Amino acid sequence: MNYIGSKYKLSTFLKETIYNVVGKNLSQKTFCDIFAGTGIVGRVFKKEVKKVISNDFEYYSYVLNKNYIENHETMDYKKFLEELNNLELRDDGFIYKNYCMGSGSERQYFSDDNGKKIDTIRLKINEWLKNNVIEDKMYYFLLASLIESADKVANTASVYGAFLKKIKATASKQLILEPALFEINDNCHDVYNEDSNILIKKIEGDILYLDPPYNERQYGANYHILNTIAKYDIFTPNGKTGLRNYNRSLYCRKQDVSNNFEELIKNAKFQYIFLSYNNEGLMKEEEIKLIMQKYGKYDLIKTQYQRFKADKTENRNHKANSTYEYLHILEKIG
Q1: Is 298 helix (H, G, I), strand (E, B) or coil?
Q2: Nearest to 150 by CA among 75, 230, 89
Q3: Is the separation of the CB atoms in 53 and 76 below 8 Å?
Q4: Is the pLDDT of residue 126 over 70?
Q5: Interior CA angle at 247 toward 261 and 45, to 5°?
Q6: DSSP state at residue 293
Q7: Exposed (0-12), middle (13-18) or buried (19+): which is 78, by Cβ within 10 Å?
Q8: The pTM is what?
Q9: List of domains in the chain
Q10: Residue 313 above 50 pLDDT?
Q11: Tens of pLDDT along 13-49?
Q12: Which residues, in sequence order, are bridge partners of residue 326?
């Protein structure tokens, strides 16, 4: 997924830096990715560590990580995918009624057929779970597969703050449910859907990776359609873009972010803490340093990388195509 703040392109840099600080043998370590997003960083370390703890406040993220992180044993999924891909489409589902133009909603997040297919697959997955045809592991695998497959044919500039007036080329393609394949390993992992500042008081481990929102963009608004597919609950979509009620992170509020961040660091029962943050964030470099060095040995490494683009053909009015990613490092004492 083309995801705001994704660490896919930075994963090698993160891994090498963590190796240099902690050591290359992480086999007995517990690694926590507490702002997990699509789970890229947790996936990188899944086979390296004893346990991954993954968390995100957004429900679509929880679903993705229940699959990519918590699922770790082989499963026979092909017959389910084949059936889901060949169901007769229904036109009474929530996505088609509220987010496709042909229903009269005046919203065009998906083509009519793709909206109907999302509904058809989503309702069948629910039916299978309710009737014990599938267990939780398969449920999250199939749901994660649907979220990612739907995202590939969304008629947006990658984020869901608005839809496009005309169906773009990728959105006109037929949705094909493709498997969200995860890493197989012998270890069990834990996935949560909680406020990070509450969860931090309940967990402990060795390495804590922090990748909070950098600015005032709320992920719940930017990815509200993915939450709707994941939850598939009934509500009245709000306004032209069909927003649902969404979580508002204090990390996206300039007046709250520093106090919230320090509370997280203070309560963290982890020896090593790594914070990803960029030079355009609400908290400035010196501000982060002053907070973190209160709690132990502090260091900073930075790297230049290509900034997020909402669409390959869109430059989002940025003057430059790159930015700096800061990796703040704390070896906590006490």
Answers
A1: strand
A2: 230
A3: no
A4: yes
A5: 60
A6: G
A7: exposed
A8: 0.93
A9: 1-71+185-198+208-213+273-334 (3.40.50.150), 73-181+224-248 (no CATH)
A10: no
A11: 999 999 999 999 999 999 999 999 999 999 999 999 9
A12: 277, 302
